[in-house]
Structure formats: C-alpha cells, structure tokens
Specification:
Elements (H helix, E strand, L loop, with lengths): L1 H4 L9 E2 L5 H4 L6 E7 L4 H16 L7 E7 L3 H9 L7 E5 L10 E2 L7 H13 L17 H5 L1 H4 L4 E7 L5 H8 L3 E2 L1 E7 L3 H7 L6 E5 L5 E3 L7 H9 L5 E2 L29 H15 L5 E3 L1 H16 L4 H16 L4 E3 H12 L25 H19 L5 H13 L3 H14 L6 H19 L24 E3 L5 E3 L1 H11 L12
Parallel strand pairs: 1-3, 2-3, 6-8
Antiparallel strand pairs: 2-4, 4-5, 6-9, 7-11, 9-10, 12-13, 14-15
Helix pairs in contact: 3-5, 8-10, 11-15, 12-13, 12-15, 12-16, 13-14, 15-16, 15-18, 16-17, 18-19
Bound molecules: flavin-adenine dinucleotide (FAD).
Length: 515
C-alpha cells in the first residue's frame, strides 16, 4: 500500500497525507498542521525520519491544537499535490494554520533541523503568531499577568491554575500548557520573570519554577525532582481532580470491586505478582495456543523457543517450573515436522496431574486487574512475563537475544491481538538485531514498552484507573530521570537498568493470592 511504501506508518502518530485525504485532513482542519513533504528515496529524508517520529511522540498530547502529517511526494499519486504546494526540495516542512484554504501554500520552516527541541520550538513560534481564527482547542500561549490571574477563577471552571515562571526566551511554559491540553480540571499559564507583582507576591526566585495558584490567592510551589518540562507535565497531569478529557476520574480501588465479576484483590501497584504470571501461562498455554490446531514450520519453531525460555527462566514455584521443564523436554524430543495442539495439551494436562507438577487452571489477576473486565489482564501479563524473563536471562542466560526472539515469534505467531502483533513486529524488525548484550535486552524491552505506552496514552483501551505513562515515573524511580544540557528529558539508563533488575527480580515477586 501507499502508506507502507513511505517512511512512516499509521503507528507513528503522523497523519499520512495523500491526494485523497488532503481535503478532509489538511483543508479547514480545526488544528494547525505541520506537514513534511518528502520523497521515500531521498537520503536526507530517510535520515530525518527518526527525528520526525520522535517529534510526533514528543508532542502527541498537542494533537488537538497542532498535528503532524507527512506526504510521500515520490508516490506518483501525490506528485501533483506536492507541486501545488510549491515543494521543490525534500524534505520540506511547512506550517498550515487552522482552517487553511485550498490555495494556501503553507509557511516553510526553512532549514530542517534534526533536533526535536528546535523543531518543537519552531512549531511554538508559529503557533503563537497564529492569526485568527485561532485553533479552538489551543489554550492561550502568551504570558499572563497579575490582573488576569486575579479574575481567573471567575471565568474559568478549573480546580488548579499552574503558573510557570520563566524568562522570555524559555519555551517550558508554553510546552507544559500544551502537554496539559487534553486534561480537564487544570489550566497552565506562563508568567515572565519581568511580571514583578506576581513574582513578588509569590516570592519567586527560581526560573523556571512552577506554582499552583488557588482562588483567594493561596498558592504553593509544585515539587519536582528537576525544574524541566517533563517533570512539570507529569506532576500536573496527576494532581487530584485532573483527568484526561472524556475519562472518568480515578477512584480508590475500594470502589472498583463492583465493576468486574471477580472480587477485587487489593494489591501493591509497585510490585510484581506470581498470580499474574501463572494466570498468563494458563491463558497462553491453554487458551491462546489452543486456537491453533497444529504447529508446523515457523509456528512449531516458535512454540519450541517459547517453551524453552519458559523452562529455562520462569522463576516460578517448583511445581510450575517442574511442569515447564517436563513439557519442554518432551517438546524438544518431538522430531516430526508437526505437532497437534491436542498432543501438546494432552502432555500439559497429564503433567499437571502429577503431585509435584502443575499449572493452576483459570486466571486470577492481581497486579494486572483492570477496573472493567475488558481492561488490562492478559496483555498486562504478557508484558510482565517477558520483562521477568529478560531479567532472569540477564543473570542466567548467555545469548542476548534468546528471550526477545522467543517473544517476538510468540507475539508474531500466536498473540491474539493481531494489531498489537503487527506493531510489535515493526519495532522488532527495526532494532532487535542491535541487541548485543543481556542488559541491553532488558533495556530494549523496557524502551519498546514505553513506545507502546506513549502510543496508547489516552486511547480507548487505556484503563482510566491505570493511565499509560512513561515508566518508571519519577515517583517510582527518581534516579532514572535526568536532563541533558539543553534541559530535554533523558533517561539515566544505568539507573533504569538497576531499577528493572530489582523490580522484576525473582526474589521480589509476591506470592499472594496463589492457590
Ligand atoms: P501494560 O502496558 O500492559 O503494562 C503492564 C505493567 O508493566 C504496568 O502496569 C507496569 O507495572 C509495567 N510497565 C509499564 N511500562 C513498562 C515499561 N516500559 N517497562 C517495564 N514495565 C513496564 N494495545 C493496543 O491497543 N495496541 C497495540 O498496538 C498494542 N501492542 C501490544 C504489544 C504487545 C507485545 C503487548 C504484550 C501488548 C500490546 N498492547 C497493545 C496492549 C497494551 O500494551 C497493554 O498491555 C494493555 O493495554 C494493558 O495495559 P496496562 O495498563 O495493564 O499496562
């Protein structure tokens, strides 16, 4: 298809513009649009595409105000369109204000920087000078004043007003304003360090810094580890009374119990539960694999690799690991070119009847419980299982890619969510081969999981009680977060690795709720 031949896919959060959809997407859009005109054969475009993808995930929350699109001008169907926008070189990036007309050619960005921060700042410059009509979803970006703040709560129905104090050259205030755009219960405004009366009233001495301001003039400083965009946005999105638009407010887990047929099992959000891992194995071996009638070719190889990593690394109770080891030695001995699911199942259930080997029948979700039956559960278990396995392999394995390859082919061949499988396969094809050490494998899975979290934040499949975040958040691992010289967020990977190795380690897995 057209989309697959180009440099981007639908999962990049970039609108794929074509001759056909240009009218519905670009013309009269309620959001401003940034469009990259590229040619799929052009080296510069290929080199630029990771930056553009990174930008798209970086400003995903800004979509209702400003959205990113790309068009492959090398596709013959689009040549006329690119020509009509007077595009001569690739890549060219142009800014289109909201409600632009068919004859509007867009405002060129000039030199295309390969730096996400530069590009983001350029978008903000363009957005701020956006004329009328202003994109309706875009909050005001200009600095606020004492006068405006004084009457703020008379005209705005929000619980919190966050004020970001900064100097005129800083973009943080505007960035955080847009990062909070899809959240209700809060408004964000920037205040310049030259706004003397607010600066004096609040006693502000650090720029940037963030204060929460309340009716009647009460205020309090927002506590963050580092005074930078990501830290402000994360903390503000999680304030009491702040909810993603269209999602119900979080309630205490006590009140969740009536929404599912199971009794709610209280759990510690910061721990891994063996009950989830065993439930995942049950569902995977008895239900998901049960949708196959025979395993042959790639599917058989995949099944063998999966059961083999489970037998080697699953840090379970002896009764469960006995079963996995037994199942594995049986499976590896099968030399035929096909195995029926019936034969596999018979071996599994026979083993499960012996006194010292079993796999509990049925699921009992704990850390993977969802607030509704259609949230979390099995996919949550699959992620957890493979994180645990990469961490086990880190101390017991030797082949850096062994667990990831098993996961890749399991997901590719058997994972019931086919869309998930396609996305995961794309990511694996892109970078799994580069994994060259056991710790890198742990980090690879962590970082890919965060890519998925970013894509799914705010999606329908997100459990409102368990929002998708870049994980682990600062309140779980402060040392994992840092900033670069340019104040952009950066993971401290050494600390992240340390954290993962502890978090998913076998001796920390809780055994509550096991049969
Ligand atoms: P999950 O994302 O399932 O995470 C489970 C737990 O892991 C979290 O509660 C947290 O404790 C921990 N965790 C979170 N992030 C990380 C991290 N970066 N590193 C380590 N641990 C972490 N759904 C779709 O709608 N579209 C998709 O394309 C899609 N692709 C998927 C691909 C795979 C391979 C899998 C296993 C699932 C996929 N899903 C997809 C499902 C989705 O990712 C979630 O699993 C599901 O929505 C349940 O979310 P959750 O809140 O339980 O958290």
């Amino acid at each position: 298809s057209v989309a697959e031949a180009g440099l981007y896919t639908a999962s990049d959060q970039i609108v794929l513009l074509t001759q056909e959809n240009v009218k519905s997407v670009l013309i009269n859009s309620t959001a401003a649009m940034v469009v990259e005109f590229y040619a799929s054969w052009c080296g510069h475009c290929i080199a630029f595409s990771p930056t553009y993808k990174e930008l798209a995930s970086d400003i995903k929350e800004w979509k209702p105000a400003v959205d990113l699109a790309a068009i492959d001008c090398a596709d013959q169907e689009n040549t006329a369109l690119c020509k009509s926008y007077k595009v001569e070189g690739y890549p060219t990036i142009k800014f289109f204000h909201a409600y632009s007309k068919p004859d509007y050619e867009g405002l060129p960005f000039g030199d295309v920087s390969r730096n996400v921060q530069d590009l983001r700042h350029k978008i903000l410059d363009n957005l701020e000078t956006h004329g009328e009509p202003w994109p309706p979803a875009c909050p005001p970006l200009e600095p606020t004043s004492q006068m405006e703040v004084d009457v703020f709560f008379e005209t705005n129905d929000v619980k919190h007003l966050a004020l970001i104090f900064e100097d005129a050259t800083s973009y943080v205030g505007r960035e955080v304003t847009l990062d909070l755009l899809q959240f209700e219960g809060i408004a964000v405004r920037r205040v310049l360090n030259t706004e003397e009366s607010l600066v004096t009233t609040l006693g502000v001495t650090e720029f940037p810094s963030c204060y929460l301001y309340y009716p009647g003039g009460n205020f309090t400083r927002l506590r963050v580890d580092i005074e930078a965009r990501t830290f402000y946005s994360y903390a503000l999105q999680r304030l009491p009374g702040v909810v993603r638009s269209g999602k119900p407010p979080p309630v205490s887990t006590e009140l969740l119990k009536n929404n599912t047929e199971d009794p709610w099992r209280p759990f510690d959000k910061f721990r891994v539960y063996m009950a989830d891992l065993e439930s995942t194995l049950h569902y995977s071996l008895r239900v998901e694999l049960g949708t196959q009638s025979v395993f042959q070719g790639q599917a058989l190889t995949s099944l063998k690799a999966y059961i083999s990593v489970l037998a080697k690394y699953f840090p379970g109770r002896p009764i469960v690991t006995n079963l996995l080891k037994d199942l594995n030695s049986w499976l590896q001995k099968q030399t035929g070119d096909r195995i029926s699911y019936e034969a596999f199942k018979e071996k599994l259930e026979n083993d499960a009847q012996s006194p010292n080997s079993t796999l509990p029948d049925g699921v009992r979700w704990v850390g993977c419980q969802g607030s509704e039956p259609h949230f979390r559960r099995y996919p949550c278990g699959v992620w957890t299982l493979f994180h645990v396995l990469t961490v086990q392999a880190n101390s017991k394995g030797s082949d850096p890619q062994e667990v990831l390859r098993a996961m890749r082919s399991y997901v590719h061949n058997f994972f019931g969510c086919r869309e998930c499988a396609a996305h995961f396969e794309n990511m694996a094809a892109e970078s799994l081969e580069e994994v060259d050490s056991l710790p890198t494998a742990v980090l690879w899975l962590w970082s890919r999981h965060n890519v998925v979290n970013n894509r799914l934040a705010g999606a329908l499949s997100e459990d409102p009680q368990f929002p998708k975040i870049q994980w682990p958040p600062p309140d779980m691992c402060s040392a994992c977060h840092a900033v670069k010289v340019n104040r952009e967020h950066m993971w401290n990977q050494t600390e992240v690795l340390k954290f993962l190795l502890t978090y998913f380690s076998s001796d920390r897995i809780l055994t509550d709720y096991l049969e």
